[in-house]
Amino acid sequence: MSYYKIAILPGDGIGPEVIKEAVLILEEVAKHFHHTFEMKYGLIGGVAVDKTGTPLPTETVELCKNSDAILLGAVGGPKWDQELSHRRPEAGLLGIRKTLNLYANLRPVTLFDALLHTSPLKSENVIGTDVLIVRELTGGIYFGTPRERKNGENGQEAIDTLRYSEKEIERILRQGFQIAQGRKKKLTSVDKANVLESSRLWREVADRLSYDYPDVKLEHMLVDNVAMQLIRNPRQFDVIVTENMFGDILSDEASMLTGSLGMLPSASLSDTGPGLYEPIHGSAPDIAGKDKANPLATILSVAMLLRHSLRLENEADSIENAVKKTLEAGYRTGDIGFDWERVLTTTQMGTMVRSYLKSPV
Ligand code: NAI
Ligand code: MG
């Protein structure tokens, strides 16, 4: 019997809907494996702006710091699109990542066999897809300064800055190498070194570090080529390590290998302190409030939380297994079952996964 504190940040749009199912899964795991998960809710994103005037209230930061792990839904939506940049919901998400130094974002792209024919790509191309994208999460163009608007000679000018220090590059690359050591020992470092200076530094650091990991085969690939290769032959990849924005874009692309954006979980980790777990998708305003969202990405994020932050391997396996069984039994939400006769709601999908958790076959 063990006791853990988990911060729950539902956020906006479909966030609260998928989080509700994920929390029920956590409660089921607690019952089954005799743990106590103390779950406390915090505000982040648009809902926090509405209630407190800021997308990341101090209480939320404190709650997260005092927890063993954090589970987050998604933030954002058209309602807040006109807000000033520091009051945008996304500033809350970037803020918590930065404050907790969650620089390593792990995004496993794994195709469940039952969804082989769900991907819009040919099944012979996607079969066996098992890629781990390691995305740098607290640097690069999402954080660099100057970031501003000003009046220039030709009307307004907007400036974003892509900046990386050697230290930031080194720590994320080490994560990539170490994770590759525990997998197929192949690391693809993705950059745009033919154009960007930050990428040239990235490549130099990767080459230097590769001497520390002689068992890992390091390759460099330009990001535009990776975008193409992921579709052409995803099986060539084991671990992909890349900077913040490239990782953001490539992982949305890679999600289609698995059938839907609604399938991909993620873990954001620092060297010390709690990890943050969230689906890679956003708040999906187009389907929010309709009980239509696929909760599996968030449920699979719970599995990552149990494995990485709480070291509860069996419990994590049991969730992944329940998701697998649910899909094998033919249950689908709309995003992965567009040609299905009877599509499940978010709530029904969560209930199905729980039923397989209760009675593992
Ligand atoms: P999105 O990821 O919210 O949605 C893209 C498309 O995928 C939509 O058609 C949506 O319906 C669908 N989709 C996403 N998750 C789904 C799920 N679980 N089940 C079924 N379908 C799903 O990205 P979009 O539309 O570009 O952004 C919407 C808002 O979300 C924006 O405000 C954006 O800033 C925010 N966002 C937040 C993120 C986060 O909180 N981590 C990440 C990405 C976007
Ligand atoms: Mg994204």
UniProtKB/TrEMBL annotation:
Cofactor field: Mn(2+); Mg(2+)
Chief location bin: cytoplasm
Binding site for NAD(+): 77-90, 282-294
UniProt-listed Enzyme Commission number(s): 1.1.1.85
Residues involved in Mg(2+) binding: D224, D248, D252
Biological pathway: Amino-acid biosynthesis; L-leucine biosynthesis; L-leucine from 3-methyl-2-oxobutanoate: step 3/4
SUPFAM superfamilies, per the entry: Isocitrate/Isopropylmalate dehydrogenase-like (SSF53659)
One of the Pfam families matching this protein, by short name: Iso_dh
Keyword ATP-binding: no
Cell compartment(s), UniProt: Cytoplasm
Cofactor binding notes: Binds 1 Mg(2+) or Mn(2+) ion per subunit.
Record-listed substrate binding positions: R97, R107, R135, D224
Site (Important for catalysis): Y142, K192
Enzyme class label: oxidoreductase
Molecular function terms from GO: 3-isopropylmalate dehydrogenase activity
Keywords: Amino-acid biosynthesis, Branched-chain amino acid biosynthesis, Cytoplasm, Leucine biosynthesis, Magnesium, Manganese, Metal-binding, NAD, Oxidoreductase
Annotated catalysed reactions: (2R,3S)-3-isopropylmalate + NAD(+) = 4-methyl-2-oxopentanoate + CO2 + NADH
Positions of the Isopropylmalate dehydrogenase-like domain: 5-353
Keyword Metal-binding: yes
Protein's job: Catalyzes the oxidation of 3-carboxy-2-hydroxy-4-methylpentanoate (3-isopropylmalate) to 3-carboxy-4-methyl-2-oxopentanoate. The product decarboxylates to 4-methyl-2 oxopentanoate.
Quaternary state and interactors: Homodimer.
Protein family: Belongs to the isocitrate and isopropylmalate dehydrogenases family. LeuB type 1 subfamily.
Protein name in UniProt: 3-isopropylmalate dehydrogenase
Organism: Sutcliffiella rhizosphaerae
